[in-house]
């Protein structure tokens, strides 16, 4: 941030100021992200039975909001610069300085995105994407400063700054949108789709029906609950065994998650899609195979209803 403001003071370019202003956001947002990661790592307690992971969404919201504000300020200042141009200088030196900071931010950003996906942590990944945005902005700055230097068109300083500011606004909106989605318990479609696909592909004959499927994220913790229909003559030990198999399969093959599985006993109306062999209580032959898809498993009712 300090280096970029030095570049701005050296060049007096609004275009360079766009990158320097965004660096203020980097520092403030990363400071809050540091605190939120610490808090989200704390174990669950009686006041927070699902842990403290939701604070990460607040961190991402703050970062996105600050990026939005920075982008809007940049665009307004750039529009003003079109009508009231000013002298800029030392553009080649400024381009070199900005280029170096862009390389550093890009390397750190890619590292943080990979770590954010591995852990997983939405805050670390969001901060990494912010740094990648900063790198792209810096690349645009270097190209723009070279264009201004060789064409001598001062108006390009403001025009290019508007383009970069617009890109920053879009990035900020996406971060705010993802954080609000998390706070509203929006389903992670990719993860849930993968879970449902594994359940469908590797379903056991004993698993007659899955419904009322829901997923919630609390920071890096994923919680899934659903209803599993089993033959009504299974004893408690067998029911526990089947539930454990579902749990292990999802955790081993899709993602680490905490499952809450409610078991339902089968009814005579389940027979037409039940694959259980040698069933002692079957009242009708199997006549239908029901694929478990997203639209089916999220319904809060058995598939015959």
Describe the protein's architecture and organization.
The protein is mainly α. It folds into 2 domains: 2-183, Up-down Bundle (Alpha-lytic protease prodomain-like), CATH 1.20.1510; 189-297, Alpha-Beta Plaits. The protein is built from 9 helices and 3 strands. A 3-stranded mixed β-sheet has the order 1-2-3, with helices on one face. Helix 1 runs antiparallel to helix 2, helix 3 runs parallel beside helix 5 and helix 4 runs antiparallel to helix 5 (122-151). The model has no long low-confidence stretch (mean pLDDT 85).
**CATH topology annotation of the largest domain:** Alpha-lytic protease prodomain-like
> Biggest β-sheet, characterized?
3 strands, mixed
Gross geometry: elongated
Radius of gyration (Å): 27 Å
Structural class by helix and strand composition: mainly alpha
State the total count of DSSP E strands.
3
What's a concise summary of this model?
By secondary structure, the chain is mainly α.
Question: What layout of secondary structure does this protein have?
Answer:
Layout lengths: L1 H10 L2 H27 L14 H29 L7 H28 L3 H30 L3 H29 L5 H13 L7 E10 L2 E10 L5 H18 L4 E8 L28 H4 L8
Parallel strand pairs: 2-3
Antiparallel strand pairs: 1-2
Helix pairs in contact: 1-2, 1-4, 2-3, 2-5, 2-6, 3-5, 3-6, 4-5, 5-6
Defining traits:
305 residues, mainly alpha, Alpha-lytic protease prodomain-like, Alpha-Beta Plaits, 2 domains, 9% strand
